[in-house]
Each structure stands twice: as C-alpha cells, then as structure tokens.
Amino acid sequence: MSAPSALPTTEMGELQAWLRLLLTPGVGNDSARKLLAAFGSAPAIFEQSAVALRAIGSARLVQAIQTEPEDLKTQLASTLAWLAAREDRCVVTLGDLHYPAALLNIPDPPLMLFMLGSLVPRVGTHVTLDSLSCLAMVGSRNPTPQGEVNARQFAQTFGAAGWCVVSGMALGVDGAAHDGALMGGGHTVAVVGTGLDRVYPKKHLNLAHRIAERGLIISEFPLGTPPLTANFPRRNRIISGLSHGTLVIEAALQSGSLITARLAAEQGKEVFAIPGSIHSPQSRGCHLLIQQGAKLVESAQDVLEELRLPLSLATDAIASTVDAMAPTETREDKEENPLLKALGFDAASFDALQARTGWPTPQLQAQLLELELSGEVARLPGGLFVRIASA
After folding, report:
1. DSSP state, 379?
2. d(CA 387, CA 182)
3. Domains in the chain, please, with CATH?
4. Structure pTM?
C-alpha cells in the first residue's frame, strides 16, 4: 500500500482490516494465516458469521475476531497520516505482490511489514529488496574494539561487492555493519523491533536517516510500538529470512545473535562465524556455532566464495576495498614492533606488558599512547589493552 494523500475507500478498508487482524489480542500469526487461507482476504474474515469462524478456530478465537480492538481507529488514522507524510513509506501485507519473496519461505512470515526508505516497492523501481542479494550480519551490542572493526570492514567489502547487508540497527556490531555497508557504497536493510515512528536506540538517529537514503528500515510492529524486550528476538527471523546467509561477528553464549543463527540454520541458510580469543566471553558464542557446524571465516572473501558470488563482481570489489583499507605499515613492519609482539592478540594489563617488555613506565606509556593514536591498540575497561588488526 503506497502513500498517496488519500487512499481510495477500498484500500483504506483493506488497510483497516489488516490492522484489525494484526491488533486483535489472541490472534497470532498461525491463526491469522488459517483465517486468510479459509476466507481469502483480511476484509472477508470480518464479514464471516460465528458459525463460519467456528469451523476454523475455537470459541475464544471467534470472540476475539468479532471484537474490534479499542485502538483500531487511532492506529488507522496514525498509519494513514504516516503514509501520507512522505513518499518513501509503505505498508506491505502478506500476499501482496510486493511482499518480499524470501519471507514467504520462512515458517512464520509476518502479516504486515511497515517499510521506510529508498527501496520501498514502487512501480518502475529498478532496485528492490527482491532484486538484491542479502547477507545478515549480527553480533554483540558491546563488542570488543576488534569486533567493531571486523563488522565495519567486512560490511564495507560486502557493500562494495554488491551485497545488501541486513542487520537490526542495535548498538555495537549491528550499527557498525550498517555503517560499513554504506561506506562501501552498498545497500543496507535494518529490521527493527519498534514502530517506525520512533528510532531505537536514539543514538542511531543519524544512522537511521542514512539507511533510509540508501536502503530500507522494516518493522512488523504497528506504529507507536515501544522497544519491548520480547520484540527483538522475534524480529530476528526476518533478518535471517531475508538473507542468503548469516555472519556472526561476536556473541556471548547468551546472545540474541545465536537466536538469529539458529533461525538461519532452521531456514536452510548458511551460517558463518568469526573466531576470536579463547579468553574472550564475546567469542564463545561464535566458537559454539563453529563447533555446531557454522563455517569459520577469516575474511569477507571466505563468505563471498561460499555464497558463490560471481567472481567477476567480487574480485574487483574486494581488491579495491582491501586496497583502501590497507595500512601504510606492512605486516612485517608490525611484527618488528616489540610492544605489539608483547601484546599479542589477547587483552593485557599495563603491568603484564611492563613485565613482558621490561620497559620503564614512561616509555611504555608513551608507546601505548602512540599505538592508540594510530588505531593499532585500544584501551578496554579495567585498564586492559588489546591489539586491533585489519579485518
């Protein structure tokens, strides 16, 4: 459903019926799909007698269907106003011609999708969600400095190679992935757990505007939906469902990213994971995924080759992106730096580094500051230092 200043009466009635189906308590996606299969459309459901409805579901379901939600009229007015405000907005319903084909193949496709951005379905639009090859990138909301670098640089390569990066616009890895894809000149899709009339987290307001300019923000939740905890794991099936594969950058053992990876595997999609230090809690989820059969990747090219991106497209894009990200110092030069050698790739305290190098405090402080300023070392909470490598 597009965003004209005033929808035709038939379209308005259809939108109202879909919103009513979405908002009615006690009617989940499974029941809604059964009703749609039986009666053909959302408006037809609400024209049925109690006897006809009882043939499909319980007496409780019949009562729910026959009771109009209190906030339906408010939601309809809000949605119509939201659609009319800008041309880059739309609402797509299950069965609509513009409904993303990839989501029709998942076990629990959302009934409605609210969309905002340059990729909203329009007649004559050359680039649409269905025309793009999508890859999900997910990970910790509190990544290590290396994890954030990996997310941004991998996504930049994917974007340059023509892939659309799909993530959840959360803090940490998600935000870095969206940013990296845009840096690479690619498209990106954010699947969020709130209504599209708000941005969460607020820190990503600018990022949300940038995503809308060269991608899409999607939600299955009606306008006004706050950031409820239960909504974020639920939206993960859409992130994996839209994508050919899911790459987990960093994840603790209790992580929403592992939910996304599990859903991807259940959907028959490829799952990739980047390994990390055996001492890092943020790497344990990735290590568990690898033990369970996820593909270990060390570079963006590993993912692209596994997904069989046409080499003519991937090779040039990867080469140019790698060249742009290449440090001025060679690997051999870095290996000759005694402080980087002493630091290794695990976090270490100042005292540990002093014991390893034998340097006096002023010299060690000066060298650490120099490496921090050059982006080769990051300072972690608790007085720890960690080395940052190019992804």
Report:
1. E
2. 26
3. 1-79 (1.10.150), 129-188+229-325 (3.40.50.450), 331-387 (1.10.10.10)
4. 0.83
